[in-house]
Amino acid sequence: MPRIKLFNISALLLLAGILAACATGGRQLKCNIHVIDLTKQRGIYLPNTTANGIDNYLKTSPKWQKIPRKSNGKLNHDSAYEAARKGKTVLATYNTGNSRNGHIVMVYGKKKPAWSNTFKAVVPYSSGSVQGKKPKITLLSYQFRAEHEPKMNYYIYLK
Known about the structure:
Elements: H1 2-23, H2 30-41, H3 51-60, E1 64-66, H4 77-85, E2 90-94, E3 103-108, E4 114-116, E5 121-123, E6 125-128, E7 136-139, H5 140-143, E8 152-157
Antiparallel strand pairs: 1-8, 2-3, 2-8, 3-6, 4-5, 6-7
């Protein structure tokens, strides 16, 4: 009898693991989990979903404001950094616009921005996870590819 219960519990755990892997395309989605944890520590709600799902939420939430782009259509890295430096919660997102997951990070305002050869601009540092690795603070250009910039946004928490 105990052997059957042990088998049932093992089977359930295995099934849960398989379902979780299928839901994430077989890899752990650490960028969204990391940002959800960071905002939760600040008392800010984000839905427990993918980076694309969080970006879609930020676009429609009255508690978040998208930072307007510069007149040349590029991201306004200066405004994002200045808001983060002043203690505001600022997120950077990349939404693929399809079922493939995007990316999300929190802008880090305690370290001065630096030049990025790929973005051809001074970009802020950010806290995030790349390719499922342990989250760390890196230049935004390490977190996102420059060719993704048209589908990227910065958001500031207003409340």
